[in-house]
Write the structure tokens for this entry.
Amino acid sequence: MKILRTVADVRRAVAEARGRGATVGLVPTMGAFHDGHLSLMRRARDESGLVVVSLFVNPAQFGAGEDLSTYPRDERRDAELAAGAGVDLLFAPPVDEIYPHGFATSIHVAGLTDVLDGASRGAHHFDGVATVVTKLFHIVAPDAAYFGQKDAQQVLVVRRLVRDLDLPVRIVACPIVREPDGLAMSSRNVYLDADSRARATALNRALVAAEAAVDDGRTGADEVLAAARAELAASGIEPEYLELRSPHDLRELDRVDSAALLLVAARVGAARLIDNRTLEVRSS
Ligand code: AMP
């Protein structure tokens, strides 16, 4: 596996692989790899001739008071894990390679970014995501790009920007990878002390309780949200948001008819965690 630092080097390496007829898969990340990241890399490996992983803690998607300066970083460990997952190129640029002096352009996906994490973290968050993802797509020009369903709103924002800007890339959403006790894997889980780590399992339990409510015929949003909220409350967690929305356009839903997305964000100890689950009315 090669580690590359510049846009020019990535373009050269990708062009060389394309010359051999390889298809290209891209996995954008901020590093601190866990099995969630590795699942995306393996999927890309299965489906592509050349696998490129970007490792870039994108300052533009962090707000003032967020964890940019403390975000976990360990490039050597990440490089070993990526190589083990069969990655060909690790693109780990310095900040000024992505945002050169005078950088002044931003991509804004309207509507989808006004709610949930866009409302909680502020508009800059998804502007930062959309801008860096657009840049990565132009730098790498992948056939396919792999994202985790863990960040469900991010997947929808990226799909929309790809559609709106006619970017020739296929977006592949991969399932959420969880710890054995159900906690969704996240680079931010390292912020959890023992007590918070135990309490954090309530997020997944809340989503599972909501699913049980739906299975039970309690499909109204109030009933679904109450089931989830009770699990959170039992662990002393007050969500930043807990909402039932359309998995297609994030429209708020008042009941689970066909598919619905239940999304939660909560501060647990020192970590801000997010999770989600698709709920469906199962025909028996
Ligand atoms: P991050 O490094 O947190 O920006 O994540 C990079 C990619 O990995 C994003 O597409 C995330 O959605 C995805 N990802 C993060 N955690 C998980 C997880 N637990 N399961 C699946 N994908 C994940």
Q: What stands out?
A: The CA atoms of residues 3 and 90 lie 5 Å apart. The chain has two domains: 2-174, 187-279. The mean pLDDT is 98.
